[in-house]
Specification:
Strand order of the largest sheet: 1-2-3-4
Shape: flat
Helix content: 25-40%
Strand content: 25-35%
Largest sheet: 4 strands, antiparallel
Number of helices: 3
Radius of gyration: 27 Å
């Protein structure tokens, strides 16, 4: 058994936050010495072209001696974002009807560019 598996064997308290393709797991765990720490795991679902999927996970271990500083910085960072950008999500990608219109515009630009290249400008005097 790996050391990480042993450290994480005692799960004390858990919360889950589902956020679209991402899921966040907040877990209080116990060390061998019966002290507590927190793990924060981000799990993100990726779907392949064939319909199969896999998850990528990233984990943060947060120990008691870092709780105060971590909490203060997290609070400061979230307040900064909300004060400067508000709570409204402004990314188009988060809208249910989001479509990448720029790809269609690019195709139209290519068609226009190709048509312009095949056009020959002839003056009346040239005839």
């Amino acid at each position: 058994m790996r050391e990480n598996d042993m450290l994480e064997k005692d799960e004390i308290f858990s919360k889950v936050l589902r956020a679209g393709r991402r899921t966040y797991f907040f877990d209080v765990r116990a060390t061998k010495a019966d002290d507590y720490y927190i793990t924060i795991t981000e799990s993100k679902k990726f779907t392949e072209e064939d319909g199969s999927f896999h998850f990528k996970k990233h984990k943060i271990y947060l120990y008691k001696e870092d709780f105060t500083a971590f909490s203060e910085i997290l609070g400061e960072m979230t307040a900064y974002v909300l004060n400067h950008k508000g709570e409204e999500v402004i990314s188009e990608r988060h809208q249910k009807d989001f479509k990448r219109e720029y790809q269609q515009e690019t195709v139209e630009e290519v068609k226009t560019s190709t048509a312009e290249k095949s056009f020959t400008d002839i003056e009346f005097d040239d005839i």
